[in-house]
Each structure stands twice: as structure tokens, then as C-alpha cells.
């Protein structure tokens, strides 16, 4: 079974060794093995767990809540409902973030079209004939 040093694991996940040490300190990596000299050794399963941690972080989940999830994983089947519910909640959070990004993109696309039309015409005045004058910042 292949093992990875902290540097190799960090590189594979596009993280820093500092981040992995922090996760370990916060209790997010309870299964990380150490050599007799205290050096962390990462297995494939550790890398997979770290991918889930990073996924949860990207949803805005605080480290404390990620730690709760990690603890639930250690509980085995007794925590299946909590883990399922947590991912359902994260799914709703991400869906809301996606909708917000779509709304933002819509505004950006409108402004791109607005300015492309103005550039093509050589003036913003072209919009006075087709739209009410823009009142938002240029």
C-alpha cells in the first residue's frame, strides 16, 4: 500500500503542508499514522477523506462542523442519518450559492452586452433610444 509524505499529500491535493498540519491539529485527520519519529504518513483513504474535507470547506462549512462530521464517520452506522442530513443541508447551501452566482452572471452578461453595443456605436448614447438611461455605476 502506497503512503505519502505530508509534502506529497499536500501536492496531490493542491494544499500546503501547513494546511494538513492544521487539519491534523484540529482533529480532522484522526486516522493519520505517524512514524516512530512523529512524521505523518498519508494513505489513499486519507487523501479521499481530505477531498471530502475540502469539499465541505468550499461550501462554507466551518472547521468545527467538519470536525463533527469526522466524528460521526468514526461512529459508523449509528450516525448515518446525521451524515445524510448534513449533506442534504450542504446541498441546499450550494444550490443557493449557485443561484446567487447565476443571478450575478446575468447582471454581468447584461453589462457586457450594454457596453459592447456602446462600443460598436462609439457612444453610450445609443442606449438612450432603446432603453431608459442607465442609472447604475458604469
From TrEMBL:
SMART domains: HTH_MERR. Keywords: DNA-binding. Residues 3-72 form the HTH merR-type domain. Coiled coil: none annotated. InterPro entries: DNA-bd_dom_put_sf, MerR-type_HTH_dom, MerR_fam. CDD domains: HTH_YyaN. PROSITE patterns: HTH_MERR_1, HTH_MERR_2. The keyword Transit peptide does not apply. Pfam families: MerR_1 (PF13411). This is MerR family transcriptional regulator. It comes from Saccharibacillus endophyticus.
Amino acid at each position: 500500500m502506497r503512503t505519502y509524505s505530508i509534502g506529497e499529500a499536500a501536492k496531490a491535493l493542491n494544499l500546503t503542508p501547513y494546511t494538513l498540519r492544521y487539519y491534523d491539529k484540529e482533529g480532522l485527520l484522526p486516522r493519520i499514522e505517524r512514524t516512530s519519529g512523529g512524521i505523518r504518513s498519508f494513505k489513499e483513504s486519507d487523501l479521499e477523506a481530505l477531498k471530502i474535507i475540502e469539499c465541505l470547506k468550499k461550501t462554507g462549512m466551518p472547521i468545527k462542523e467538519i470536525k463533527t462530521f469526522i466524528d460521526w464517520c468514526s461512529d459508523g452506522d449509528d450516525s448515518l442519518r446525521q451524515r445524510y442530513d448534513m449533506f442534504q443541508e450542504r446541498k441546499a447551501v450550494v444550490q443557493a450559492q449557485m443561484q446567487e452566482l447565476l443571478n450575478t452572471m446575468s447582471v454581468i452578461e447584461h453589462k457586457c452586452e450594454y457596453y459592447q453595443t456602446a462600443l460598436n456605436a462609439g457612444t453610450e448614447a445609443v442606449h438612450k433610444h432603446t432603453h431608459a438611461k442607465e442609472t447604475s455605476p458604469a
